[in-house]
Write a structure and sequence with these properties.
The complex is a heterodimer. By secondary structure, chain A is an alpha+beta fold. Chain A has helices spanning 39-52, 71-77, 81-84, 89-93, 98-104, 136-152, 256-266, 276-287, 316-319, 330-334, 347-353, 396-407, 464-471; strands spanning 28-36, 63-69, 127-133, 155-162, 182-183, 195-196, 217-218, 229-230, 238-239, 245-254, 359-360, 363-365, 385-392, 433-435, 442-444, 451-461. By secondary structure, chain B is α+β, with helices and mostly antiparallel strands. The relative contact order of chain B is 0.16. Classes of the chains: A alpha+beta, B alpha+beta. At the A-B interface, α5 and α12 of A face α5, α6, α9, α11 and α14 of B.
C-alpha cells in the first residue's frame, strides 16, 4: 500500500474553500436552502456548480460559492441508497430525530416541530448554496443570479438566510471566533496543543487516531468514468468522501435583551440600581472572555483589548478551580483544553480534548441590537442570532459530543448543576450558573434560555470531484 | 444511625419458557413505563438498591450447535449482604415476583408461592459476577442521598447568606456553614463521620489481596515460561481470529437510543459469544479474575484507571463460559462512554473483550482493538442489548458529584488549616 497522504495540501483544488477559510474578507454572505424538484435538471445544475464552486487552493477576493447536500438531497439527486448508507448514521438520519433532540437540547420552543426550516413540518432541505461577497451589492448580484439559475434547473428555493457583518462580534456583544483548531500541515501553523490531524475535518485523511474513519467508498464499477479518487486505504474502491466534510448548520436565535436583563438583575446594587462594571464582569464570566475577546485566564480583573486575539493559554496550571474563568463558562466548555481527565494539565488531556474539535464557520444575522433599549422592560425583540456552521469528519464524536457532553451537560468537568450559561438549553439542572470565588462561590439561579434553535440540518460538503460525480449520476 | 454494610451484587439468571418470551417482554415493557410504582416490582420502594435492571438475553446457538436458552436476567447493586437484597426484592415485589417469574422454567406452579419458595427459587438462580466494579466501596444509598441533601442545603444557605458570607474569611464561612448544619435537625446527622470499614473487613480484604500476590510470586518460575508460551499462542490466535467491520443495524440502534439520555446517567449491556475453543475460554476466565482482583483492590475508590464516570459495572460468564455479559451504570452519553473506553482504558477493554467473537483485532492482548474507533463502536453497538427495565436510585447525581458530596460532609468535622479550608470551600 502506498503511503497515505496525511493532509490534503497536494489536492487543495479538490477541496471546497470553506474547509480552509471562513472568507473573513468577504463580509457579506447568504445561504440558499433548496429543494430538488427535478433530478435531471438538478444534476445539470450541479455539473456547472461543480465548476463554479470555490476551491481551497486560492483565497477569493471578490466572491465565493460553496455547496453542500443533506442525505435526502443526495437521494433526490439519484444516489443509490446503499451508497447513502455508507455515510455516517448522523448524516443519513439527519439532525431532527427524537434521540438528537435530547442530545442537542432541541426541546420546547427549540423543537424541530417548530423550526422555520429543516424540521418535519417544513419543506425538505436538499441543498445549501453558500454565497459570500465583498459587499452587499456584489452579494445581491450573486444571490439573484444563483436563485435564478437554481429555479431554471428545477431547484425550488425553500429559504434564503441572510447574514449581517457585526465586525467580528456576535449579538451579545462579544468578540467571536477567536479560537479555531489548526490542521496539521495545512494553513497557518499553530502550537501543537491547538493542532489536530486534517482527517478530523477532511474525509479521506488520517484522523487523530491515525485512522481514515468512516466514509463512502464505492465499488470501482459505480464510477465508470473514473471521476473519483481511488480509496487511499487500497480497497480498490472509489472514495466519494475524499476531500469532503460534514457541515452542521443550525440557526440559533439570540435573546439579546433577555441575556443582558438577566445579567443586569443579578448584579444590581443593594439599592436596586444597575452596576455596569459588575454586569460586564458577570457576562464575561459566563462567556469566559471579555467583550474584546481577551481571555479571563489571561486578564482576570478587567478587559484588556491588547489580548483580544491572544489564544495561547491553558487552564490547569493557572486556573484549575475556575477562579478566573469559571469551569461552567462557555469557552471552557466549548474547548476545555487541558482541564479534563485523564491527568488534567497533561498532554494526554489535550490529546483527548482534541478528539472533539470543530471548525466554526458561522455568520450572524439580524440587525445589531439597539443598546439604548437593552435594559428596558419593553424594547425591540426582533429576530437575530447566529447561523451556526461547523465542519467535522465525525459528527457524533465532534459536534454532537461537544454539544451533549460539554455544552449541555450540567455535570461538565465535575459540576453539580448548570449548563452553558450563554447557549445552554436549560434542561434538568441546567439553569444555575456558578461563579467560583474566594472565599466561596456565588450563583445565579433560574437562568432562562437565551439561545433558541430555529432551524438546522446536517449536510455533506463534497470535494469537487465528488460534486462532478454526483452531477454525472444520470448519465 | 449509619453503619458499615458493604455492598453486594446480585445477578439472577432464570431460563425463560420459550412460549412465554413475548408475554414476558410485554410485562417488562409495562414495568418500564412506571419503574418506581409498577405493581410487579415498584422499585421506588427499594431502600438499599443503587441500581437494578431486568433484561432478556435471547436464545442462541453456540459454536458447537448446542441451543442455549433464553434468560431473564435481573441485576442489582445493593447495600448489605446478598441475602438482605433478595429479601427486600421478595418483600417489595410480593405477588409480583410470581407474576414475573412464572414466565420462567422451574418456578413453583402452586401460586401464590410462599415467601420461602420465592426466595429459594431466586437464590437457586444466582450467578456470581466474574468481575464486579464498585465506584466507591462501602458508600450506601442512604449516605449518597443524604449527603446530596446536605450539600443542597448548604448551597441554599450560601445563596441566602449572600454578601456577608462572601466577604468573610474562609474559616468564618466554614464556621457559619457548620453552625447552620448543627442547628438543623434534618442535617446534623452529617456531623458524625461516615462509618469506616470495620477491622474484620479490612483484614479479610488484605488477606484476599496478599495471598494471591504471594502465591503468584512463589510460582513465578513456573508462571513465566507458561506466560511466554501463552503469549505466542495468543498472538497466533490474534492473527487468525476474524474481526469483521460491522455497522450496527439502524432498527437495533433506534431501539437502544430510545432508552438513552433521559437523566444524568445511562445504562449499558453488551452480550456475546466468547471465541470458540478452550484457549480463549481459559484466557477469558483468567483475565476476568485478574480484572476482578484489580477492581476490588486497586480501583475501588472512584477512579477506574482515569475513568471516573462509572458507578457500578460487572462481567459475567454464562452457559459454561460460552456467552458473556457486560453491564454498567455510568454518567453521560453512550458516545462519551465509548470514547472514554477508547481514550482511557482501551487496554483493559481489549484484555477482556478480545476474547469475544468479532472484536476488533488486538495485538498482544492489550494493544490495537478498541483503538480502532469505528470498528470498536460498531462492535459495541452491535452487541449492545436494550435494558428493558432500569432503576437508578439517584439519577441526577454523577459519580464525581457523589465523591464531592462525601468530601463536603467529611469537611464539616475536624480542624483545618486556612489552605485546607479554602480547598474545602471550593467544593461548594
Amino acid at each position: 500500500m502506498a503511503a497515505v497522504a496525511v493532509t490534503p495540501a497536494q489536492d487543495l483544488a479538490d477541496l471546497q474553500g470553506l474547509l480552509v477559510r471562513g472568507y473573513g474578507n468577504l463580509t457579506s454572505a447568504c445561504f440558499l436552502l433548496l429543494e430538488i424538484d427535478e433530478p435531471d435538471a438538478a444534476r445539470a445544475w450541479l455539473a456547472l456548480t461543480a465548476d463554479l464552486a470555490t476551491a481551497a487552493d486560492s483565497r477569493p477576493t471578490a466572491s465565493s460559492l460553496n455547496v453542500a447536500f443533506t442525505s435526502s438531497g443526495l437521494r433526490a439527486l439519484g444516489l443509490d441508497s446503499t451508497v447513502i448508507e455508507m455515510f455516517s448514521n448522523e448524516f443519513v438520519e439527519g439532525i431532527a430525530t427524537p434521540f438528537r433532540q435530547r442530545l442537542l437540547g432541541d426541546t420546547g420552543e427549540s423543537a424541530p416541530a417548530s423550526w422555520a426550516w429543516g424540521g418535519p413540518n417544513g419543506a425538505p432541505i436538499h441543498v445549501a448554496v453558500m454565497l459570500y461577497a465583498v459587499d452587499e451589492g456584489a452579494l445581491a448580484t450573486l444571490r439573484d443570479a444563483e436563485t435564478r439559475r437554481a429555479a431554471a434547473h428545477g431547484l425550488r428555493t425553500v429559504s434564503i438566510l441572510d447574514t449581517v457583518d457585526l465586525g467580528g462580534s456576535e449579538h451579545f456583544g462579544f468578540s467571536d471566533g477567536v479560537s479555531q483548531p489548526a490542521m496539521a500541515g495545512l494553513g497557518r501553523p499553530d502550537r501543537s496543543a491547538n493542532t489536530v490531524a486534517a482527517g478530523e475535518f477532511v474525509l479521506g485523511y488520517p484522523n487523530q487516531y491515525g485512522l481514515l474513519g468512516e466514509r463512502p467508498v464505492l465499488p470501482r464499477s459505480a464510477d465508470p468514468m473514473e471521476i473519483l479518487s481511488l480509496d487511499v486505504a487500497g480497497s480498490g474502491g472509489a472514495d466519494l468522501g475524499r476531500n469532503g466534510s460534514y457541515l452542521v448548520f443550525r440557526q440559533l436565535s439570540q435573546d439579546v435583551r433577555g441575556f443582558w436583563r438577566t445579567v443586569d438583575h443579578a448584579t444590581r446594587r443593594p439599592d436596586g440600581t444597575s452596576d455596569p462594571v459588575r454586569r460586564t464582569m458577570l457576562a464575561s464570566k459566563m462567556v469566559g472572555r471579555w467583550p474584546s475577546g481577551a481571555s479571563l485566564v489571561v486578564t482576570p480583573e478587567n478587559d484588556d483589548p491588547s489580548y483580544a486575539k491572544f489564544n495561547d493559554f491553558l487552564y490547569q496550571d493557572v486556573d484549575r478551580d475556575g477562579l478566573r474563568c469559571p469551569v461552567g463558562s462557555h469557552i471552557r466548555r466549548a474547548n476545555p483544553r487541558d482541564s479534563l481527565d485523564p491527568s488534567p494539565g497533561s498532554s494526554r488531556s489535550l490529546e483527548v480534548t482534541n478528539h472533539h474539535r470543530i471548525l466554526r464557520r458561522g455568520r450572524e444575522y439580524g440587525h445589531r441590537v439597539d443598546v439604548k433599549t437593552l435594559f428596558d422592560e419593553v424594547g425591540e425583540d426582533e429576530e437575530r442570532g447566529l447561523h451556526f456552521v461547523c465542519l467535522n469528519a465525525n459528527i457524533a464524536r465532534q459536534f454532537e459530543f461537544l454539544q451533549k457532553t460539554w455544552i449541555n451537560s450540567p455535570k461538565f468537568d465535575g459540576l453539580h448543576e448548570g449548563d452553558d450559561p450563554v447557549v445552554g438549553p436549560r434542561q434538568a439542572l441546567g439553569d444555575t450558573f456558578t461563579v467560583p470565588a474566594s472565599p466561596v462561590r456565588t450563583r445565579v439561579r433560574g437562568m432562562p434560555r437565551f439561545v433558541a434553535v430555529r432551524g438546522g440540518a446536517y449536510f455533506f460538503l463534497p470535494g469537487r470531484r465528488a460534486l462532478r460525480y454526483l452531477a454525472s449520476l444520470g448519465d | 444511625m449509619e453503619r458499615w454494610r458493604g455492598q453486594s451484587e446480585i445477578t439472577i439468571v432464570t431460563p425463560v419458557k420459550p412460549e412465554a418470551m413475548s408475554a414476558l417482554g410485554e410485562l417488562l415493557g409495562a414495568m418500564a413505563r412506571d419503574v418506581l410504582g409498577n405493581d410487579v416490582l415498584p422499585f421506588g420502594r427499594l431502600t438499599n438498591t443503587h441500581f437494578a435492571r431486568f433484561f432478556l438475553l435471547d436464545s442462541a446457538q453456540a459454536h458447537d450447535g448446542i441451543q442455549l436458552p433464553a434468560y431473564l436476567i435481573s441485576m442489582s447493586d445493593i447495600d448489605g449482604r446478598p441475602e438482605e437484597g433478595l429479601a427486600e426484592l421478595v418483600d417489595v415485589g410480593g405477588n409480583g415476583i410470581d407474576h414475573l417469574y412464572s414466565h420462567c422454567i422451574g418456578y413453583p406452579t402452586a401460586l401464590p408461592a410462599s415467601r420461602q419458595a420465592r426466595l429459594e427459587y431466586l437464590r437457586a438462580h444466582i450467578v456470581r459476577a466474574d468481575v464486579n466494579y464498585v465506584n466507591t466501596i462501602g458508600r450506601t444509598v442512604q449516605q449518597i442521598r443524604g449527603e446530596a441533601e446536605v450539600r443542597e442545603a448548604i448551597e441554599d444557605f450560601l445563596d441566602r447568606g449572600g454578601p456577608e458570607l462572601v466577604g468573610g474569611n474562609p474559616s468564618a464561612v466554614r464556621a457559619a456553614i457548620r453552625e447552620f448544619v448543627t442547628s438543623d435537625g434534618r442535617l446534623n446527622w452529617a456531623l458524625t463521620p461516615a462509618p469506616a470499614p470495620p477491622l474484620a473487613y479490612r483484614v479479610r480484604e488484605l488477606v484476599h489481596f496478599v495471598v494471591p500476590v504471594i502465591l503468584g510470586l512463589l510460582l513465578l518460575p513456573v508462571l513465566v515460561p507458561v506466560l511466554l508460551v501463552w503469549l505466542v499462542v495468543l498472538r497466533l490466535h490474534e492473527i487468525r481470529d476474524p474481526s469483521p467491520l460491522v455497522k450496527p443495524d439502524r432498527a437495533h440502534l433506534d431501539q437502544l437510543r430510545a432508552l438513552e439520555d433521559y437523566t444524568v446517567q445511562n445504562q449499558f449491556i453488551a452480550a456475546g459469544f466468547l471465541k470458540s475453543g478452550w484457549f480463549r475460554r481459559v484466557t477469558a476466565v483468567v483475565i476476568l479474575w485478574l480484572v476482578g482482583f484489580g477492581a476490588r483492590h486497586l480501583f475501588n475508590n472512584g477512579n477506574l484507571a482515569g475513568v471516573k464516570t462509572i458507578h457500578f459495572a460487572r462481567w459475567i460468564l454464562l452457559d459454561g463460559a460460552v456467552r458473556s455479559v457486560f453491564v454498567s451504570n455510568y454518567d453521560g452519553s453512550t458516545e462519551s462512554y465509548m470514547d472514554d473506553f477508547i481514550d482511557k482504558v482501551a487496554w483493559a477493554l481489549n484484555a477482556v473483550f478480545s476474547n469475544g467473537a468479532g472484536y476488533p483485532a488486538t495485538r498482544w492482548l492489550l494493544f490495537g482493538g478498541a483503538r480502532d474507533e469505528q470498528a470498536f463502536k460498531g462492535f459495541l453497538r452491535t452487541h449492545q442489548l436494550p435494558t428493558q427495565v432500569w432503576y437508578a436510585a439517584y439519577d441526577q447525581l454523577s459519580a464525581l458529584n457523589i465523591v464531592d458530596n462525601a468530601k463536603i460532609r467529611a469537611g464539616l468535622n475536624g480542624d483545618m488549616t486556612e489552605l485546607e479550608t479554602q480547598k474545602w470551600l471550593r467544593l461548594l
